[in-house]
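--- STAGE predict ---
source: upstream dedup step, 1 unique chain passed
mode: sequence only
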Amino acid sequence: MDKSKNLRETAKTLLSEGAVKSIIGYKKGRFPFYLQPAIIKDPEEAASLVFTPLSRQNLVSFIKKAAKPVGVVVKGCDLRSLVDLLQEHQIGRGDVRIIGVTCAGVLKGDALEHDPRFKPAEIKDVVEDDGRIKVITSSGEFEMPEDSMMEKCRSCSVHAPYLYDDLIGGGEPGKAPGPPAYPGVEEIEKMTPGEKRAFWLDMFSRCIRCNACRQACPLCFCEECVMDEAKPRWVTAEVDPVENLFAHLIRIYHSAGRCVSCGECERACPVGIPLSLLYNKAAKEVNELFGYNPGVDPEAQPAMLTYRLEDPECKSCLGGRNL
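--- STAGE serialize ---
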């Protein structure tokens, strides 16, 4: 099935019939191996929409910027962040038309540029063929290996969306996901406290405080971020390993019980900090403590907004009292 063709037909129909005022999707960029987000309002603009194994970006981040009701193209993993926004009443279900697309996985950002079998200038298209990702070049077709896909794709359990208004790609609807695999967390947990501190200080010594991670996150929707507050000032703008670590720890606490491991923060980071490790660790802790998996049920109460008598006791760092 040609998903791009199906998507264009669906988008044109929705806009022509007035079912939505705008649609958020992907269109080709300046190079054949890059796609960029697109917000379209005219039915004729639907001809520019595509969906390929290069559709990496989580488009949920753009919902607030589009005219409502808005149709948004989502992969199964992206859907979870949309569910979070519904839970937190940032958008209403009637304001969004969910255009779900089945997805076999998307390529890493640098997978095509570093493949020795062909040059980027030779690439004509990247397609999915029965679950396999193929690169069409002027010198032939090449199948991409599994390790060329993003880490989250290799452990994904939601290749087909489980909540949608329109389904692109055919097949059966997906099932609500169970807890993710939390890739990379096990190696971090094996470290001693001193090793963890040294590892993260080294990682965050790269941070240039550009806030690309914050801007890319679909769940960072505050009008004023605590990082930007002057009174009180919780963290300075100084680029320093300890200050950087403190800033990211503040953000991880704000994301606990909400992060769905979409990987947008790490994908957007210009200096390659493995942010997914940090957020996957927090997600694992929330799941083990409270049995909560975010982004599954729009009607569920988020873990950090729920108090239950059977919640596990935790010892305070201030005097060791049970909280």
